Q: What sequence folds into this?
């Protein structure tokens, strides 16, 4: 039973992959698009070409050997013929399909992509123009560095006032530094432990 479930789950995973669904959509749209192209060839191109000869392009052919004889439908009875009309019809169908795909799908998609790229570039330029804000970790690292520098410098350092405010001792930077030095002399401070 587990082997059967494994096969079924594998088949389900295969069907649900994006490629299979995209391919199915492409086949359905392609079949509908083929009908449109065929109707354009039969309704527009064949009559234009038919104004200078037979309306059906498949009836254009050339005899390359023999005396060639044709029946009422245009089929070859004797001799060897090249049916260049069918090649012309297929070529025109291909060109029309390529033109429709290019002008109705590729050109609009390229313009849309250019607009989206321009918007992305504009947003990137605006982001680059604004100064980057520091994260909390970066700010805390800067505060730590200032405090360490103040401890090493003793009194008069730029971080002494910060140390005083942090310890809750009122007074100016000198009183904080004096307290810091007192901590060093009695061994209770960080420097005294060294």
A:
């Amino acid at each position: 039973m587990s082997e059967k479930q494994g096969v079924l789950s594998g088949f389900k995973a295969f069907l649900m992959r994006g490629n299979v669904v995209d391919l199915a959509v492409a086949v359905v749209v392609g079949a509908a698009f083929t009908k449109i192209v065929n109707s354009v060839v039969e309704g527009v191109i064949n009559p234009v070409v038919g104004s200078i000869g037979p309306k059906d392009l498949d009836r254009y052919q050339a005899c390359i050997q023999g005396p060639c004889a044709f029946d009422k439908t245009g089929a070859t009875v004797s001799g060897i013929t090249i049916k260049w009309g069918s090649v012309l019809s297929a070529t025109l169908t291909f060109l029309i399909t390529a033109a429709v795909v290019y002008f109705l799908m590729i050109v609009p998609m390229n313009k849309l992509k250019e607009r989206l790229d321009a918007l992305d570039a504009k947003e990137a330029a605006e982001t680059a123009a604004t100064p980057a804000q520091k994260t909390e970790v970066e700010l805390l690292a800067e505060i730590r560095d200032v405090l360490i520098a103040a401890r090493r410098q003793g009194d008069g350092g730029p971080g002494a006032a910060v140390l005083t405010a942090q310890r809750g001792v009122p007074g100016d930077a000198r009183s904080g530094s004096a307290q810091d030095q007192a901590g060093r002399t009695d061994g209770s401070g960080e420097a005294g432990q060294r």
In short: The first helix runs from residue 2 to 16.
